[in-house]
Write a structure and sequence with these properties.
mainly beta, about 40% strand, six-stranded mixed β-sheet
Length: about 180
C-alpha cells in the first residue's frame, strides 16, 4: 500500500498479498477488493495505480489480473472482474460450479467509470468515459466515451480536429453533413 493511500472502512479484502495499491489512492466506503487464485493462476494480481479514487460500494475481484491505471476515478457501485461463474452444467446450481477465467482487465490512466458500471474481461483505454449503468464486455480504445448495455462507443477524441466527435459503435467517426 503506497504512501498517503487510504481504504475507508472496507467491506472485505481477500488476498491482500496479491493486491498492490499505489501512492495517494483513496478507496471509499464499503468497497470489496479481492485477488484470489480461484481459476488456476497461482499469482493473481489486482493493481491500482497512483492517485486513483475508487468509489463507495465498488466490488473489484481478480482471479488472474486487473490493472487500474493512474488517476482513474470510479463512481459508486462499480463492478470490475476478470472472471465469471460457470453455468455450463444445468444439473448443478451455479453456486456449485467452477469460476471461469475470462480476460484480464485493464483500465487506462485518467479514465472515469460512471455509477453502476460493470466491467467484465475487457480493456478500457486512457482518458475514457464510461457512462452510468453501462456493461463493458469488449475493449474500448483510448479517448472514447462509451455507454449502454452492452457498452458501445458514441464519441471519440479526433486528434486531427482536436475535438470530441460522435462515432459509430465501432469507433469510426460519423461524417457531418456540414
Amino acid at each position: 500500500m503506497g504512501f498517503l493511500s487510504y481504504i475507508e472502512n472496507p467491506l472485505k479484502i481477500n488476498g491482500a498479498k496479491n493486491i498492490y495499491i499505489g501512492k495517494k489512492v483513496f478507496i471509499q466506503y464499503k468497497t470489496w477488493i479481492a485477488s484470489m487464485p480461484q481459476t488456476g493462476n497461482k499469482y493473481p494480481l489486482l493493481k491500482i495505480g497512483n492517485g486513483s479514487v475508487i468509489g463507495n460500494f465498488n466490488h473489484i475481484y481478480a482471479t488472474s489480473k486487473i490493472t487500474i491505471g493512474e488517476k482513474v476515478l470510479t463512481a459508486d457501485k462499480v463492478y470490475i472482474s476478470d472472471n465469471l461463474h460457470s453455468y455450463d452444467d444445468i444439473t448443478k446450481p451455479i453456486i456449485h460450479q467452477k469460476i471461469k477465467q475470462i480476460s484480464e482487465v485493464e483500465i487506462g490512466d485518467g479514465t472515469w467509470i460512471g455509477e453502476n458500471v460493470a466491467i467484465i474481461g475487457a480493456k478500457i483505454g486512457k482518458n475514457c468515459v464510461v457512462g452510468a449503468n453501462s456493461v463493458v464486455t469488449k475493449d474500448i480504445p483510448d479517448y472514447c466515451v462509451a455507454v449502454g448495455v452492452p457498452a458501445r462507443i458514441v464519441k471519440r477524441f479526433n486528434i486531427e480536429t482536436n475535438q470530441w466527435n460522435r462515432t459509430h459503435p465501432d469507433g469510426k467517426f460519423i461524417k457531418s453533413n456540414s
